[in-house]
Amino acid sequence: MKESLKTNGVKVRFAPSPTGNLHIGGVRTAFFNYIFALKYGGEFILRIDDTDRARSKKEYETEIIKDLNWFGIKYGYFYRQSERTEIYEKYLDALKEKDLIYECFCTEEEILISKEIAVKSKKPYIYNGRCANLSISEKEKLSSQFKERGIYPSIRLDIAKVLKAGGNFKAVEFEDAVHGLLSFNPKLIGDFILKTEHNRFTYNFASIIDDSDIGITHVIRGEDHISNTPKQILILNALGKVSPVFAHISLLYGKDGKIMSKRDAASNIEYYKKEGYLPEAILNYLAVTGNTFTVRELENGKEKISEKEIFSNILEIAELFDIKKVRGSSAIFSEEKLRHINEKWLQGMKTEILIKILIEKFNLEETLKKLQKTYGETLFVEIIDFLKNEFKTVKEILAEIKIFFEDFKIEAAEIKYDIKLKETLLNNLQKIDSDKFDENAVKNAVKESASESGKTLKDCYETLRLCITGRQDGPSILKIIKLMGRERTLKRL
Ligand code: GLU
Hints:
493 residues; alpha/beta; Arc Repressor Mutant, subunit A; 3-stranded antiparallel beta sheet; 21 helices; disordered N terminus; binds glutamic acid
């Protein structure tokens, strides 16, 4: 590893909730954490946020891990929040000891009604603190009612007491690495729930307890969590703990300006696999979206700073990554740009590595083996090398690979061509000996056919292409013919 990548105790985490598949925006968050750790020689932890037992599913966890592996995003320590209940209890006890929490007997239904009323009157919902000062007898009465219903009093943070204990501070503030100083009025937050009436710890509590307990130094996550951050900081304040650095990165937006949601086809990882985008090219694309990478270069002896958009490996992205340059908004997703970056990655990739990726990431082992068997090792590599420079995605390469197979069938009904011209071409190509069947010889045979038939060279090449590939356009037909060889070409014709 390079000199710049030395350790300084950085510890980051990616914390997906297993309530659905990994979203492309989630991959971006995971990747930013990953390269941040890579850059500083730190630790990257995978935490599964499964405190919501009703919505969390094991299948989703498995899928998320599979997808991270597909992208090559490697994590160190791995754990589930559901395994850490005792630790959360311990911290809750500490808050109880300090008298900074209280039991709340407002039920979920009651809160829902209050929230609806707030929405109707166009005001933000703030918990009214009804249970902050219940008398002992009221508590006892409500407690037994809750027991009968099989639910628990929820536990809320007493913000007024936290503020008082902290010297009556007026604002909850933090320096966001992306957004700069953010300031919140604690009075507008309202006492929030740490543990629910179903005896489950909430995201806000479990998340910041983990971050603090495990010693996370930087919390890099989506900006949809900005409003949770003052709550989490209040919990840390109450416990007398220091806060990690927060960096809230932009969510991904579609061209329509709307946040990409799980409903968008392009938010699904399967979509990218199917379309044939290379995992590293996708990561490269996600890294430069809503972000800037700059490099210093020497030009005529002068230093010049320029923007870099296409990388050749992940380590290079990590080295140049600067969290401060990530923009807090307007990360607009563009598939066109992804295609462009994918094309560059294909072109820049060694053919042997591409073959490995096609097998490991796109399950193309069977297809490639068949091709290799048909053509032999040398021609096989030449074909892949040729295709990788002609196409932008694996999907397109795959479609073209098909024409190289013996059993590739062109439906005669699909194509209209000049039969007489085809016969002339076949006749002239047949005249070339096997050992002289190269691009030049084919070119001459085409010239010959053109003058014999009175057709243009263009006509000849179009007819050849149609009869050999069944297509009207594509990469150099001379090159395809050369790779296919004499026998296969004649047979096709
Ligand atoms: N489970 C949360 C999410 O998926 C994690 C947020 C965080 O990183 O704190 O959005």
